[in-house]
Write a structure and sequence with these properties.
With about 375 residues, the protein is α/β, with parallel strands linked by helices. It is about 35% helix and about 15% strand. It has a seven-stranded mixed beta sheet, with helices on both faces. Strands 10-11-12 form a three-stranded antiparallel beta sheet. A two-stranded antiparallel sheet has the order 6-7. Bound molecules: pyridoxal-5'-phosphate. The site of pyridoxal-5'-phosphate has 15 residues, from helix 2 and helix 3.
Amino acid sequence: MYISAFPTFSFSKLIKRKKAQVFSDYFGYENTRFFYRGAYAIFYGVKALGLKPKDTVLVPAYHCGIEINAILKAGINVKFYDVTHELEVDIESIKSNIDEHTKAVFVIHYYGFPQEMVSLNKLCQTHGLKVIEDCAHGLFSFYKSKSLGAWGDISVFSFQKSLPTADGGAIVFNDRKEDCFITQKKPALLTTLRAYLLLYSEHIHMFKGFLFSVFNTLILKPSRFILKILKRGGSKVITANTNEFDAQYVSLGPSGITEKLIDSIDAHGIVVNRRRNYQHLLEGTKHIKNIKLLFNNLPVGVCPLFFPIRVNQRDLMQQYLSDHGIETFIFGKKLHNLLPKEQCPVAWAYSDELLCLPIHQDMNPGNIEYILKVLEDENCPLN
Ligand SMILES: Cc1ncc(COP(=O)(O)O)c(C=O)c1O
């Protein structure tokens, strides 16, 4: 069995089934601006908020790095605040970091689990600070009956994490109508074709495993070869899947396929499947001795991105699962080099320990049972 870490792309997903539009249902398109990737939305967002050099944004000690670099590349300073063992923002740490340069607080809803936005917004209002909500993990999650992304002055999204898209991010302006001060271009056709072909190969691998080697030989390998030649000839191919922030592409919009996909997707179905898979793993892992979970329950309103577990020998465990066809994800493996080594031990520990098991919408109960079986196996590094 092969289980991808992220949702896979198939051509049938381009067909609109229900009247369930990702963004117009949740936020409306008027206040939304789409980008090639979430990091570019962050870059644009801090500029749109009017932040200036010498201004500081308070950012969480646990992060993946690209969101921090997006702020720095916009010319704004950052200062880190602590997070708790439950990956909640540490309000006291935020308070103690506020000074005359602080202009905004950047908050991440890790793995789709909401932060306590009421007290955070109250604190920011008291100090006249803007709230930037990072919903890269939180598409379709709710907090107190209000969707994530509707709490901050601005909020940012990254679609590749939870939707079957190869690129795409967005910024939602909750404090005003979007003001367009950039002209967007589309990514090159070659970039888009390459990215979607790879995502489609994940689909073939997961659902038509018997065809995968044929697909690999007849389509993937020749495509790689052609791509190499085109690159030598000067064609530029970029990817939305790196942790590098490349400022020269900041004004790129999403690809046409991504635009079509985010307008075709059944948001409700995604939430139902993700919650079902998470709940199934939650129940199943109760019987596994040495497993340590990050979140022990699934609150109402959460659309989980992954099932994060804490493992001592994390990289060994990731390899073991991959050897069994289960692809996983690590968030925050390399914390930003501006984060002091002595600050926030939780972030440093989680950077070494957290491993995200997949629970995405393409998976079925058989996939979850298989993951549980592999975790229970006597050769699993947990045992
Ligand atoms: C919390 C968070 N914010 C922002 C981003 C940037 O999103 P993208 O990869 O679409 O640029 C990421 C991506 O990994 C992320 O995990």
